[in-house]
Amino acid sequence: MKCSVFIATSVDGFIAKEDGSVDWLDTAGNPEADMGDQADMGFNKFIESVDCMIMGRGTLEVLSGFDLTPEQWPYRDARVIALSNTLTQPPDNLKDRVEIYSGNLCELIAGLESEGHSHAYIDGGKTIQSFLDLRLIDEIILTHAPVILGEGIPLFGKTRQSIKLENSKAEAFPNDFVQLHYTVSYQ
Amino acid sequence: MKCSVFIATSVDGFIAKEDGSVDWLDTAGNPEADMGDQADMGFNKFIESVDCMIMGRGTLEVLSGFDLTPEQWPYRDARVIALSNTLTQPPDNLKDRVEIYSGNLCELIAGLESEGHSHAYIDGGKTIQSFLDLRLIDEIILTHAPVILGEGIPLFGKTRQSIKLENSKAEAFPNDFVQLHYTVSYQ
What we know:
- Chain A is built from 5 helices and 11 strands, in the order E-E-H-H-E-H-E-E-H-E-H-E-E-E-E-E.
- By secondary structure, chain A is α/β, with parallel strands linked by helices.
- Chain A has an 8-stranded mixed β-sheet with strand order 5-4-3-6-1-7-11-10, sandwiched between helices. In chain A, strands 2-9 form a two-stranded antiparallel ribbon.
- In chain A, helix 3 links the parallel strand 3 (about 50-55) and strand 4.
- The first copy, chain A, is globular.
- In chain A, about 40% of the residues are buried.
- The interface of A and B includes residues 24, 28, 168 and 169 of A.
- Strand 10 (about 165-170) of chain A pairs antiparallel with strand 8 of chain B.
C-alpha cells in the first residue's frame, strides 16, 4: 500500500495554531493571484489517485464541524477511515461516509490491501507521525503557506529516527504558496 | 539596509541537532548527483551581493572551530560582525576578520548604513529571530535538506507575531535539496 501525506503548513512547520485553528491558511498568501487551473494546488489530482483515506480523531472532528453537503465532500469516492480508541461510531453528519477503526495500524493497512486498496491518503498531525514512525509513509506533499506563524501545532513531532527524503520537487504558485514533493527512503 | 537570511534547515525546520551538530547536512540528499554549476546552491552569488554579515555568538564559535585558511574563508570581502555581550574580542583565529558588537541592533544597522553598507547577511538562529522580531529581515532564502531530523534547534522560534511572506520562488536541486526564496512583508 502506498501511503501519502498531502498537507499544508506554515513556513515554520505548523499545521494549526495552538488552539487548533487554521483560519490563517485562508488569509495566507495573495488571494487575488490568478491561479489559472492551479486553484486547488494539486489537491484534486491527488485525491483522484487515492482509494482510501486514514485520518486521526482530531481531523475527523474538524471535518464534522464543517458539516459538508454531498457536493462539498472533498474525498470523492475514497473510503474514509478515522482512527479512534474512544468513538464507536462517527458523528451523525458523517455516519454514512466514515468508518471508525481502533487497533494496529499495520494490520489496518494489510486489511485494506487485502480488500483491494492500493493508495492511502494519511491525514492529521498525530496520525502522520504514527505512520512515519511505523515507516509506512511513502510520499510527502507539503504545501507551505507563505507565513511564519511563530507558534502552533507542528506537523512533524519527535520522530524515532531521522528520515531521509528523495526525489524532491518544488513548485511556487502565483498565490505565493510553495509545494514540496518528496518520496521517503527508509534505509 | 537590506537584511537577508540564507540558511539551511531540515524539512522539519531544524538548523542543528540538539547538541548543535550539523554533520547531518553533509550526508543529507544525494551527494552523487551532478550539480553542474549549482554545486554551491546559490551561496556564492548571494555572498557577492552582501557587503556585511551579522552573526550570533554561536555561529562565531562554530566558525572559529572550522579554523579556516584564507582560501577557505566563505564570506569574501564582506565586513563580519559577531554579536556578543560577553566577548570583547574575537577568537584568535578570527582576530583580523571579525568585529565584536554588543548593543542595540537597530543602532548597529543604522551605523552600518551610515558607513556605506547596504546589504547584510544575517546568520545564526537566535540572531535571525531577534532581527525578525525587530522587523529588520527583508529576504529569506531557506534551503531544505531532504531529511526529517525529528528533533533539534529550530530556525524559527516563537515570534512576537505571525509574519507574512511574499514573492515565493522555489527550486529543487539535483541532490534533492530544495531552496525557497521569500521576501518579508511587515504589514
